[in-house]
Amino acid sequence: MHTLSPDKWIDNYSDYLYNYAVVRVNNSDTAKDLVQETFFAGLRSAKNFEGKSTERTWLISILKRKIIDYYRKINSKKGQAEVRMSFYEDGENEGNWIEERVPQSWNSEAEKNIENEELKNQIDICIDNLPEKYAMVFRMKTIQEFETEEICKELDITPSNLWVIIHRARTQLRTCMEKNWFNK
Question: Where are the domains of the chain?
Answer without folding.
Answer: 6-76, 99-182
